[in-house]
Structure formats: structure tokens, C-alpha cells
Amino acid sequence: MVSLPNKTAGAENQSLAQWVGEIARLTRPDRLIWCDGSEAERDRLLSEAVAAKVLLPLERHRRPGCYLHRSNPNDVARTEDATFICTPSKDEAGPTNNWAEPKQTYEKLSKWLEGSMAGGAMYVVPYVLGPLGSRFAKAGVELTDSIYVALSMGIMTRMGAPALDMLGPAGDFNRGLHCTLGCEPQRRLICHFPHDDTVWSVGSNYGGNALLSKKCFALRIASHMAREEEWLAEHMLILGVQSPQGETTYVAAAFPSACGKTNLAMLTPPPAFDGWRVFTVGDDIAWMRIGADGRLWAVNPEFGYFGVAPGTNAHSNPNAMRMLKHDTIFTNVALTPDGDIWWEGIGVEPPSGTLDWQGRPWNAASGAKAAHPNSRFTTPMSNNPALSPHAEDPQGVPISAIIFGGRRASTVPLVLEAFDWSHGVYLGATMGSETTAAATGKVGVIRRDPMAMLPFCGYDMGQYFAHWLAMGRKIPRPPKIFMVNWFRKDADGSFLWPGYGENMRVLDWIIKRANHRAGAEQTPVGLVPRAGEVALDGLDITDEHLKRATAIDAREWEVELEGQHQFLARLGGTVPGEVMQQLSRARRAFKAR
Ligand code: SAT
Ligand code: MN
Question: Are 503 and 264 in contact (CB under 8 A)?
Fold first, then answer.
């Protein structure tokens, strides 16, 4: 029988104590560990994780405070097939989510969970999403049997005492239950109960499945709350661009996975932008509310970054390379014989004797990857040299532009500005990204991913578009909406745009537009920069080249608009007429050209 230690603040919260007791009676752990978020506790948990071989310390001069975790090889990514929205009716979850009946789901999982923590510990992890003291902030508590998850939550959230302080005696917190359950794919389920503010996740320790603060609470459950409470919970990075004169403009941007979101959030401007700086507010999630001044204000609910390691190097993301020098947990990267990490695209050759992500001797000639393609780093945002001084601001930051983006070899221009909010919602609703050969075996297949929220919206997609349109009517001074595509290719298959730090040039045009300081040319699908309006100095690119990157090809768009139409039709009758009208307007505009 477990008992609550009497000196914890949590024990004074009756609803918390009652719920923890209930779950402990079900799962029967030997020990309950209430996490307070202190340094001493972190050190103790790290030593325990090392002793249990859950973490491997890296060489302490090369990577002080850094550890390697190797996951179960069957547990390396989010499992959308096993992710469910459990609402009374299936319609509420909509056609893009898996749905399960709530009561039956609780019953089924309760059977699996009976005695599931016997012999081990249950960590009680209270946390706050959003800056402390902010009107945006929300509390959650995750119960988990995984020390790796408890330690990761300590990096990704404001964990421990501050959460219990914020909560006081209130029962208003997200109830997250996570259990490893032997980590078998057949018993892996990530279930969301938006009406109970509850998440039960079993069978996986992978970030997006197991760190319940992240996609589960901050997006799926929060999107449901946001709709009721008139705000936005979005899969967006937030960055600030500071001019040499010291004026900072904030931008939020949504991209599907593997489109360089973390890199953009931490961008280093090229030499031509001397005196300019980019600051990171967040790299993955934005919570946005209307401010007293009529603008849209945003906070990053998280406290750390869970980023993709492969491809990160001194060119693609110099700030990240500095950030990952210390106090970071790496998952499924390769290990060098001198106790350092390595991954494909890190920019240096691997030393011989490198072990792959599963700890096996790696032979470069075999063609196999040393690091798993979805290997990750978990690092506190305070490690980021480009962290915004407003990352912890309870007010958030005012958003002047929203950017949607994807990976498209053709059709979509380098940058496109929406005519207005309604048109911007249509651009976001129909955005897509090409899958890579590695992911599906088929190249160039467009997966539509509205606002990059397809796997993360906790309710019906058509209703979500309606919420965006309704928000637009309520924001007195709305941000301008843009679409970008860094990945367009020329006829010879080469990229038309160099990307990475050079994306600063596109941000610059976007910011000028947001501040009414640049012109644009109208096309049937939106506004594009005119020749000379995107700064190209110092680049090996001509205005002619830029023209190809921003061209609107009527034949390509005919195919595109048909693809958009088919996608919206599949979403069903809840798609607002206003979105369909935007599509018809684009079709008519091409005919009139
Ligand atoms: O879902 S995770 O946050 O683990 C990674 C992703 O963005 O897909
Ligand atoms: Mn993400």
C-alpha cells in the first residue's frame, strides 16, 4: 500500500491527492515519488537513471551534463494509428481523428493498467504550461512509471513546486497518466478525453506519445479548450526579428514535421543582414489570445525543445550546436568511442568505432544509418543562445505575421501573402507537404496537413476552420497571413532557394509587409514580392531566379486546386462555406487571367 508523504504541497490539494491515490490503487507502484523540480532531485534521478542503464553519461568534458538514451527499437516515433480522441460522439472527433467511446476506453485501459506499476515507482510530475503568473498558464500533472519521462518533463516544462503553488487547492489541472506497459506495439494507445481534461497513454515512451504536456495537452486537449474559451492553440514556432534600430517584430509559423521549424526559430541572419537578430520565443507550440490592445498575443507553453538531431550542423543551425553542448538528453543518436554523440549531417566524419543508435558497432559502408532518422535532443530553452528576453514574459509577445509552410517541389511560390484573414485561413486549411522517399516509398505525394495540425487537432477539422474564421472576426488588429515554400525546385531538380539562414531575406519581406513598408504584386492566389523587393545582396541569385521561385503557373495550380477541392470534400459538411468560396474565387481568378 502506498501512502502520500505528508510534507508535500501536493498532499494538501485534496483533488490531486485523491486522484493520485486512485491511480496508485489501480497500478500498485511500490513507491510514489512527488517531483519538486529541485536541482537536488534532478541529480538524484539522473544518478538513478544511470544506475538503471536508462541513461548513459556522455564524456563529461566534451558534453557536460549530457546523457544518451536508447529507446526500445520498436518505439521511435509518434504512432498516429494508436492515437484516439475519446468524445461522446464520433462526429465531435471528426473524420481526421481516430475515435473511441470514452467509457469503454477507460474500462479497457484500466484492465491493462491493473498492477502495471507493481515493483517500481510512480513519479508524480506537476507542471505548468506557459509563463508563471500568466493568464495563458495552465497546470497539468503527469503520473508516469518512466524515469526517462519524468526527467524529460523536467526539461520540457516548468515542473514541480511552481505547479503545486499555482494549483493551490484547485482541482483544475490536466490529468495525465502514462505507463510503459512493457512497451509492446500491440498494447500501445494514446487516448485523449477532452471533456475530462484527461490523457491516458500506454505502451510508448517516445516524446510525442509520452511527454503528455506536449502534443497531448498543449495541442489536442488545449485546441478543444481554446475553441470554447476563444483563443488559439497552434503547432507553431514563435520568433522575434530585431532590426539594427532595435525594433522587434514577432512572427508565428506552422510547418509539418521535417520542414525545419527548429532551424527557423533559431535562425542566424546572413552577413548581408548585419545588425539584425532573430530571437526564439518557441520552436513548436504557440498559445495565442487577443490582447487588450486588439492584437494577437502569443506564448510558448513549453520550457524546452524536443528537436530532430540529424541534419543539425554548424551551417543549418549554429545556435543549436552551441545549445547542445551541455545539459541535454540525446535519444537514439550514435555514440563515438570517445563518449560523444554523432548523427548523419552533423558536419564531421564519424570516428571509427562509432556505435549506432542501438549500441551496435556501425559500419559506414553498410549504408545503414548510425543515428535513427528521428533521433532527438531534449534541451532546456535556457540553453539557447538566441532565446528571446520575452520567452518568459507573462504577457506574451504581439504577433504581426502568421506563416504557413510546407515542402513543395513545384506550384507553391517562395512566399505568398494572403489577401485577408479569411483567405489566409483558406491557405492554411489547404496547405500540404510532399512526403519523402524515406517516409513512404513514394516521392512527391502531397499530404494535406491543415495548419500543420492534422495529427494534433482534438476535434473536427471543419469546426477548427470555423473557429479560425470566428477568431478573425474578433481580433481588431489581426496579424497578416503568409505562406512560404523553401523547397521549390528548378527544371533541373536543384533547389531554387538556399534556405537556412538565407530565409532571413523572406522574413524581412514579410515583416516589411506586416509593417506596411513594401509593395507586392497581385496573383490569383495571393500577393508575391515584386522584383527588387526581396534583398538578394551577397547571394548568388538574380532577380530572374527569384522570379522563377515566386512564379504562379496556371497549369500547376489547376492540379493544385483540384487536389485542394478533393481534400476539403473528404473533410465533409462542416467545412465552412467561406473556405469553399475562397477556393472558387481562386479558380475564377485563373479563368479571368
Ligand atoms: O510529436 S513529437 O513532439 O514527439 C515530434 C513531432 O513533432 O512529430
Ligand atoms: Mn511538432
Answer: yes
Handedness of CA 226, 230, 234, 240 (dihedral sign): negative
Find out whether 85 and 219 touch, Cβ atoms under 8 Å.
Answer: no
Q: Does the C-beta of 235 come closer than 6 Å to ligand 1?
A: no
CB-based contact 501:265 (threshold 8 Å):
no
CB 217 within 8 A of CB 173: no
How far is Cα 488 from Cα 412, in angstroms, rounded to an integer? 7
In terms of CATH architecture, what is 305-383?
Beta Complex (2.170)
Output DSSP code: residue 350. P
Give 415's contacts (C-beta < 8 A, 6+ positions apart): 482, 483, 484, 485, 506, 509, 510, 528, 529, 534, 550
Rounded to two decimals, the pTM is 0.97
Instruction: Report the atom number in ligand 1 closest to the C-alpha of 308.
Output: 5
CA–CA dist 563, 565 (Å, integer): 5
Tell me how far CA of residue 357 lies from CA of 67, 498, 576, in angstroms. 13, 30, 46
Angle formed at CA 216 by CA 212 and CA 220, multiple of 5 degrees: 160
18-56 exposure pattern, b = at least 16 Cβ within 10 A, e = fewer: ebbeebbebbbbeebbbbbbeeebbeebbeebeeeebbb
Q: Is the CB of 455 under 6 A from ligand 1?
A: no
Burial label, 245 (beta-carbon count in 10 A; 0-12, 13-18, 19+): exposed
419-432 residue pLDDT tens: 999 999 999 999 99
What's the chain's average pLDDT? 95
Q: Which three cell numbers stand for residue 176?
A: 495525465
pLDDT classification of 440: cutoffs 50, 70, 90? very low
Amino acid at 275: G
Would you say the CATH fold of 234-304+389-591 matches that of 12-53+83-229?
no
- Please determine, for residue 503, whether its predicted confidence score (pLDDT) is greater than 50: yes
Q: Which of 80, 214, 255 to mutate to test the pocket of ligand 1 (most atoms within 8 A of CB)?
A: 214
Q: Is the CATH number of domain 234-304+389-591 3.90.228.20?
A: yes
Name the residue at shortest CA distance from atom 3 of ligand 1: 208
Q: Is 259 a catalytic residue?
A: yes
Answer yes or no: are the C-beta atoms of 227 and 463 closer than 8 Å.
yes
Ligand number nearest CA of 375 is: 1
Structurally, at CATH architecture level, domain 12-53+83-229 sits in: 3-Layer(aba) Sandwich (3.40)
The response to whether residue 207 sits with its C-beta less than 6 Å from ligand 1 reads yes
Closest CA to 508 of 543, 484, 473, 524: 484
Per-residue pLDDT of 62-73, as tens digits, reads 999 999 999 999
Q: What is the mean pLDDT of residues 392-419?
A: 97
Where do the domains of the chain lie? 12-53+83-229, 234-304+389-591, 305-383
At residue 14, φ and ψ (nearest 5 deg) are -60, -45
463's grid cell: 469546426
Measured CA to CA, the distance from residue 143 to residue 119 in angstroms comes to: 16
Residue 84's nearest CA partner among 113, 104, 56 is: 104
